[in-house]
Fold:
Amino acid sequence: MSGGAAVADSDAAMVLAEGVHKRFGALEVLRGIDLSVRRGEVACIIGPSGSGKSTFLRCVNHLEKIDAGRLFADGVLVGYEERGGRLHELHEREVARRRAEIGMVFQHFYLFPHMTVLDNVCSGPLIVKGVPRAEAEARAPAP
Ligand SMILES: Nc1ncnc2c1ncn2[C@@H]1O[C@H](COP(=O)(O)OP(=O)(O)OP(=O)(O)O)[C@@H](O)[C@H]1O
Ligand SMILES: [Mg+2]
Structure:
């Protein structure tokens, strides 16, 4: 997967990718992705199987580490912080904290089969974010 839309300034973008590269060994999957998605904008990433769509999405919440370029979510650098002009990878705890702000439905979405749909939907807010059950259940049916 390569190329992309024009880069906007990071303040306005919810997701901003600048020259993102990702390789698995000899396989270079992402070859310089530039992409900007604004707040409220719906973007579809379309391409053949194996072209790197899921890999890119996994990079957006640092489930994969990028090899070059920069990724921002809501203006915040994903997975790293810049100190003294250099990038330092964040501790896993901080990565997890930031990841909790990013919703992702996995391709193989791994629902808990012993739980109801409502319990599955509420499990993230309840367990990860500590939202009270009544509030999580009230919000669950919203689109
Ligand atoms: N952890 C990994 N280790 C090695 N190779 C990987 C890994 N994850 C993905 N790949 C390879 O990277 C390429 C891109 O995979 P990816 O899953 O991102 O494609 P995709 O566009 O989401 O495909 P699909 O449409 O089938 O979901 C594929 O060749 C895949 O085999
Ligand atoms: Mg995929």
